[in-house]
Write a structure and sequence with these properties.
With 252 residues, this protein is α/β, with parallel strands linked by helices. It folds into 2 domains: 2-117 and 192-243, Glycoside hydrolase/deacetylase (TIM Barrel); 122-183, no CATH class. It contains 9 helices and 9 strands. The chain has helices at residues 2-15, 45-58, 64-72, 90-102, 122-132, 153-167, 172-183, 197-205, 225-243, and strands at residues 23-28, 31-32, 43-44, 60-61, 80-87, 108-111, 137-139, 147-149, 209-212. Strands 1, 4, 5, 6 and 9 form a 5-stranded parallel sheet that branches. A two-stranded parallel sheet has the order 2-3. β4 (60-61), α3 and β5 (80-87) form a beta-alpha-beta unit. α2 packs parallel to α4, α4 runs parallel beside α8 (197-205) and α5 packs parallel to α7. The protein is globular, with a radius of gyration of 20 Å.
Length: 252
Amino acid sequence: MKPILSLLKNLCTLTSRFKQKKLSILIYHRVLNEPDFMNPWEVDKRIFSWQMELLAKYFNVLSLDEALQRLENNTLPARSVCITFDDGYADNCENALPILLANNLKATFFIATDFLDGGRMWNDTITETVRNLNEAKLDLTKLGYGIFDIETTEQKSNAASNIISKVKHLSPSERTRHVAYIAEQCDGLPDNLMMTTRQLIKLRDAAMEIGGHTRSHPILASLDIDSASEEIAENKKILETKLNKKIRFFAF
C-alpha cells in the first residue's frame, strides 16, 4: 500500500507541472468478489475499493460528460480522471456500484445489449467451459486448435487465454460456430454473469452514465458498413427503450 501511495503522490506532483491539463480515463470490465485464477487481470472488491479511495483523495474524478465539456473549454482541473466500465457485467452493479457510491464517485457503463438478462459473452463461454471441465485435456483438434492440458489451474488459465486469442478474430458466424462447439464439451455454464435490465436501471437511478457498446460486441472494423451501423444503432435504441433516457456516449 505504501509504495502505491508514494507513486500516486509523485504522479500528482508531476501532472500538476503540465501547462496543458490532461484527462485520464480508467477502463474496467469486472469487479470480482475475490481473485479468480481464470481472470487474473480483473480486480476484486478489495482492490477496487482502495483504488477508488485513492482516486477520491488524490484526483478530480469527473463524469464523462463534465470532463469532455471542460476539456473543450479548457477548464479541466489538474489530475482529472474518468471511470468507465465495458460490456455490462452484473458485478458492476453488485460490487462496483456500492464502492463508487461510498466514495461519492461517478462512472460510465458501456453496455452490450445482446447479453442482458441471462446472456453470456463468447469469451466467457470459453473461460467457463475450461474452468468447469474435469478432464485432464481438452481436445479441439476438430477446430484446428490442437489439444490443451487443463489439469491444473495454471493450465486452465493458459488454455482459455490461448483459445480466446484463436477465436477472437474469426468472422462473427464462424466464431459463433466454434464457441458453440467448445460449449458442448461442458454442461451447466453460468447464465448470471451479465446485468439484468433491473440492474441497468439501478445504475441509472444512482446517477451513473450509461453508454452504448454495440449489441453483440463484434470487432466493428471487420464488419461491413450496414452491419456495423445496425450493431450501433440497435444497441442505442434498446438501451434508450429500457432506460427511458437518451444515450449520449458510445465505446467500441
